[in-house]
Amino acid sequence: MRPDREVAIVAFAQSDHRRRTDDLSEVEMVMPVLHEVQRQTGLKASDIGFTCSGSSDYLAGRAFSFTMALDGVGAWPPISESHVETDGAWALYEAWVKLLTGEADTALVYSYGKASPGSVRDVLTRQLDPYYLAPLWPDSVALAALQAQALVDAGETDEPALAAIAARSRQDATANPHAQLRGARPQGYYTVQPLRTGDCPPIGDGAAAVILAVGDRARELCERPAWIRGMDHRIEAHSLGVRDLTDSPSTRLAAERAGAFERPVDTAELHAPFTSQEVVLRKALGLDGSVRVNPSGGALAANPVMAAGLIRLGEAAARIHRGESDRALAHATSGPCLQQNLVAALEGEDRA
After folding, report:
1. Is the dihedral of CA 178, 173, 344, 248 positive or negative?
2. What does the pLDDT read at residue 116?
3. What pTM was estimated for this model as a whole?
4. pLDDT per position as a tens digit, 223-275
5. Contact, 348 vs 223, CB < 8 A?
6. Cα separation of 49 and 101, whole Å?
C-alpha cells in the first residue's frame, strides 16, 4: 500500500527491557512510554485523534486483557480506539491506514508483552495449525531450528556465520540503553541443534509506543519526521510443510509493494528473533554489506513478544529523527519461521 497522504512517525519510546517485571502490571509498564512520546511531541491525550494497541491475551492468560492497559491511556476524555491481537507493528499499520483516510491527523500506537510469567515457547504453539502441527507441540525454538538446519543443508549459512550474527547484534546493543542483553557473549550450549543459546532471543518483558502525524502537523511536532513512504504486509501458507523455509517470498512481496526496492536504504531494522532468520531476511530484501542491519541490536538483544516488531519501526524512525539515517527499512514478523511479515520504507527530509 502506497500513501497519497504524507504520514510520519514523529516520536518513539520504549521501556528498559527486563527478564522479569514481577513488580509491574501491564499498565505500570505501559504508562511511562506513553508519557514519554507525549512529552516528546507536547501532545496531550485529548490531542490524539486515534489510538491503537497490540498485545496478546495468550500471554496475559485472560480474555480482553488489553482493556486493562487502556487505563494507562486514560479514561477521559473518550477516545477513538482499536486493538490488534498481534505485534504492535500491525497496530501501526491500522493507525497509518486510519490517517491516510483522513479520519484523523494524529495517532498513538503502543504495544506490550510480559513473557516472563509463563512458558512463552509453549504459548506460541497456539499459533500453529490446530489439526496437524499444534497437537505435536513443536515449540518456537524447535521450529526455528528446522529453518536453520534447512539453511545449513542448502549451503546458505553455517554455525560460525550464525555466531557472527549473534556477536555483532549484541555488540551493537552496547549502545542501546534499553536492551536486555548487551555485549558479546559465548554462543553457549545447543538449545535445539544447530541453534545454540546465543542464536536465540532472550525472554523478557517490555513495551513501546509511537506517535504518527500527517503533513505539516508532523513537521510541527518533530524536527525531522520519519516519513512512511510505503508499508505492506503479507503472509505465507499456514502449513510449514508446503513452504521453502530458506526463503521468505512474503517479505519480498511486502517490500516490493512498500516501494523498498525503489531506492537504496542505508539502515534496516529486521525483526529476526533467531540468527538464522536474519540470513533469510537479508536474502529476501537484497541487503548487502553497505546496509547497517539492526544497529539497535535487534530482537537478539531484546525481544518483548508483541512489541519487538513495533520497536523495529521505532528504532528505524529514531535514527532518521537523529539524522543518523536518510532512508531506512523496517521489518516485523509474527508466527513460526517468518510466517507473517510487514515491511515499511521510511525516509527523512532535508530541512532548510
Report:
1. negative
2. 86
3. 0.94
4. 999 999 999 999 999 889 899 999 999 999 999 999 999 999 999 999 999 99
5. no
6. 13
Q: At what angle are helices 159-172 and 275-285 packed, to 10 degrees? A: 90
Query: What sign has the CA pseudo-torsion 285, 291, 295, 301?
Result: positive
Q: Name which of 64, 299, 27, 277 is nearest 178 in CA terms.
A: 299
The CA-to-CA distance between both ends of the chain, in Å, stands at: 30
Residue type, 99: L
The dihedral built from the CA positions of residue 202, 157, 137 and 131, taken in this order, carries a sign that is: positive
Per-residue pLDDT, 351: 57
Angle (deg, nearest 10), helices 308-321 and 88-100: 60
For the record, the C-alpha cell of 219 comes out as 513537521
The SS3 of residue 177 is coil
| Cα–Cα distance, 270 to 291 (Å, whole number) | 12
pLDDT at 127 over 80: yes
List the beta bridge partners of residue 78: none
* Cα gap 162→319, rounded to integer Å: 26
Can you tell me the distance from the alpha carbon of 82 to that of 6, in angstroms, rounded to the nearest whole number? 22
Contact 156, 246 (CB under 8 A): yes
Which alpha helices (H) appear in 84-235, and where do they start and end?
88-100, 120-123, 140-153, 159-172, 215-221
- 74 in the Ramachandran plot: left (φ > 0), alpha (ψ -120 to 50) or beta? left
d(CA 213, CA 190): 46
* Overall average pLDDT of the 331-337 stretch: 96
